Amino acid sequence: MNMKYMKRITTFAVLIAMLALTSCFKDTVTEKYTFFRPIYKTKAAVIGGIVAALPDAIKQPGKIFIKGNYVFLNDIDRGVHIIDFSSPSSPKKVAFISIPGNVDMAVRGNILYVDCYTSLVAIDVSNPLKVEKTAVLNGIFPHRRYQNFVADTNAVIAEWQRVDTIIKKGYDATEFDKNNWGIALPFFSVASSPTGTITNGTGGSMARFALLQNRLYTVSNSDIKVFNTTAPEVPAFLAQVSVGVNDVETIFPFGNHLFLGSNTGMHIFNVSNPNAPIKTGVFTHARVCDPVIADQNFAYVTLRNGTNCGGFTNQLDVLNINNISSPTLVKSYQLTNPHGLAKEENLLFICDGKAGLKIFDATNPQAINLLKTIEGINTYDVILNNKKAMVVATDGLYCIDYSILNNAKIISKIALQ
Amino acid sequence: MKKNNILILVLLLFANTCIAQKQEKLHFFGVPQVQLLNGTGKVSGAVNISFGLQKANNAYSINTGIDYYRYRTIPIIAEYKRYFGNKNQKPFVYAGLGYSANWLLDNQKRQIYNWWSSFWPTTANDATYKNGITYQLGVGYAIHNKQQKGLQLSIGLQAKTLQERFEEMVFNGTTSVPMQRVYNYQLNRLQLTLGYKL
Questions:
Q1: How confident is the model over A4-19, as pLDDT tens digits?
Q2: Which of A14, A188, A264, B63 sits at 20 to 30 Å (Cα–Cα) from B107?
């Protein structure tokens, strides 16, 4: 073919191709990301779905409760695992009670009290594999909020569905501005550590439920609710008392008092009249997260920072509560990132986050000594029972034998699956 | 004198013949270039150099330089150029495909602020960037001298890709969990090139 024509055709073809591709002068971006979509059900369907089943995998361990030889372990927003610890070195999962929206619990007699989103539900667990709901009280926990989704009383979030998304769009310079806000909002429910009579179980220090005498006390962000549990299977709502702040996280009962931990301080309520808690004292601190426990003379408060807590403090505060209306700081002890804690006589157990479980001699609050550290576990909360420390960690539930303190060691673990 | 003139003429003819033959032989060339890049809402530039081998009207070269369009990158392109005709001034077409290596400036990288600090430091570089490819296609016109050196003007389409990947916290109903977000950019632009063939 004539070179001249060849030249013209080739040039023309390239020009045509370029013109046809002028739309391709736009910058594009293909975006891949993942989000979780809530799947709603009616409250009736959710309550109706509270059933026990064979043991299930632990996905995200939360709060813990002990009654007799059984450990009740919350799986955040999924339900409660019932674990038989009659042989501490070889615990066995017995059952899993599916309770959508559950983060808190307490056990009185054979009755398990749980939250199910905004409802309080009483469940007879005499037979862990065949549980029965005995009471449902709606609207008890209006503070239950999941980012932009409010757990209302009609439709609730039954599960969250993972959605992997790919979209292609034009490049918008403002959207792809490299100054982005970080998103870090872990939603930890914190529990208190209720102690009680022989008919009540024992909870951790991070709980929002507490059993004292024949009363169940629950805390939202701003108030205490009181329930009569004389007949455990049918808790009766009695009263709601304002705390005066909007950041309450934990509750711990001791003697005739309730010790509430909030982001900005420890609040003390007198429950000599068990139906009417009365605020008697407060100890304020900088913004942190702080579960609290107490004994006859002192209160022990762990303060920690974190994305949900804010602040910079990681320490143990020991407070003198002999004058209950005016607690005073005895001393602060620096720690790594302390969470839940428990005390047995002079031994103080602190879950110090990634630093492990630390056991202190608290005989002299002015000079608390570290006796032993169980390392290698990222600890959250602890309950003491018969010389065994049940520790909830990010990777499962540990049983630590401290009967010989110098030789305290992990004797069993139920791992996540 | 006559002999000298003849000798000069023969030498000139010989030289002319040699030049003509040289163009048919494989020879090395280089073309430094500057480019104006026009894309969506953005005008930028690039500098590069092309060097390679040419035989007759077929030129094979490797292009490399610095591309400043949106994200600074270093292209390494294998290019083919086809001239048309035997004149010193002649059109050409070109096409190339290659590798685009990232060389991002700090302000081109993702930065993140922490809500929960009492001050808001800028924490740069929480993203990773993956190299991509680049390709181009266009037409041009060469204004060469007898030695086939000189200006080259061209217009074409060029594109480059890169990937940005970072971790973000996503609420899963219970807590926030780290998930990957990936952006695959394809940056397309009109390329105006001015070069000088050496």
A1: 666 666 666 666 665 5
A2: B63
Q: Residue A245: name the closest of A262, A258, A270 by CA.
A: A262
Each residue's pLDDT tens digit, A198-222: 368 888 898 999 999 889 999 988 8
Domain ranges, ordered by start, for chain A: 35-146+154-193
Compare CB distances from B179 to A29, A34, A147 and report the shortest one's residue: A34
Average pLDDT, chain A: 83
Q: In what order do the strands lie in the sheet with A70-75?
A: A51-53, A92-98, A79-84, A70-75, A61-67, A202-203
Residues 6+ apart with CB under 8 A from B132: B99, B100, B102, B160, B161, B162, B163, B185
Window 22-81 of B, Cβ < 8 Å to A: 38-42, 70
Q: Which of A180, A305, A378 to mutate to test the interface with B (most CBs of B within 10 A)?
A: A180
Question: Between vectors from CA B30 to CA B29 and to CA B34, what angle results, nearest 5°?
Answer: 150
Distance CA A374, CA B180 (A): 33
* Whether ipTM exceeds 0.95: no
Of the candidates A404, A340, A390, the residue with the CA atom closest to the CA atom of residue A73:
A390
pLDDT tens profile A65-85: 998 889 999 998 889 999 999
pLDDT at A154: 66
